[in-house]
Write the structure tokens for this entry.
Amino acid sequence: MMATQSHSHGSDTMNTQAYFDGDRPLFHLPKEPHHPDGHSTMLGFWIYLMSDCLLFAGLFATFAVLEHSYAGGPGPKELFELPLVALNTAMLLFSSITYGFAMLVMERGKKNATLIWLGITGLFGLAFLSIEMQEFAGLIAEGATPQSSAFLSAFFTLVGTHGLHVTLGTIWLVTLMVQVAQKGLIPANRRRLMCLSMFWHFLDIVWIGVFTFVYLMGVAQ
Amino acid sequence: MSDTATNHHGAGEDHLDHPPHGSFKGYMIGFILSVILTAIPFALVMTGTLDKSVTVPLILLMALVQIVVHMVYFLHMNMSVEDGWSMLALIFTVVFVIITLAGSMWVLYNMNANMMPMDMPVAPATQAATAIGG
């Protein structure tokens, strides 16, 4: 009795074919359509990047609110060295284009060329990080520590978070280089390289915001 | 039903086989535009040729253009990536980012700027009131 009821209920509400496991109605497809491995990875990773964007938006907003709260300490004009920032920007931009070249040779299935371009990208990433570390160390040596003013707290948090992303991206890059060296340019590795490509270019976009909003506008004001 | 499933499957595979990749030319255009759009704001601020009121909007505009350049030439964004879902996520994020930034600058900046300075002498009456209250 119960079974017949649910049977008629199912065929009434759904115009499409109803599915049953014996008499029991199924509220899902008996066989999920097969999706190729990793077909949704790129969209998922894009959504992760967008959520990372929101994280940076919060940090940028915090910096915007606190950027004039020097607490009697030094401001951007005394602290920032624009030639160093320009050099850093160049490092990140070069690493973006070399990653692009890595993707182009990957498309043509050239494993060694891909590894070489990835290696060059990693070196530019390391150069960026060492310049940033040097800048931070210089600021702290001058007494401009994150504790000295709200402006410096917000500065170190924003720029430091970006630097942390680049650090993790570089570790990820080395990991993928090992995987490509061992397994070759298999579909899984290509997919991983495409994800890192998006991550890497995304970090360069965030850096555009950092050098414009933090460094250039700080010194221009 | 099985027809649509097969079609979807096919489309998914097709997509994975031809992911949105740039060409050498595309990457070079993006790179050269980025170099120009980076060099000009740095030069403007470092030389200080223009007035502050002109420099600041100009460098903000160039940053905005460079972000679009990176999106198009490096991230290969367009309306058809992932059937438009990537663009939809991006538009949502941009709206959210604008609200966060504009809202913070408007509300919190003013609140912070109008706060009583820490070293402002406390009036005797207030002091007494605090003492009673405490």
Chain B touches chain A through 57 residues (CB under 8 Å).
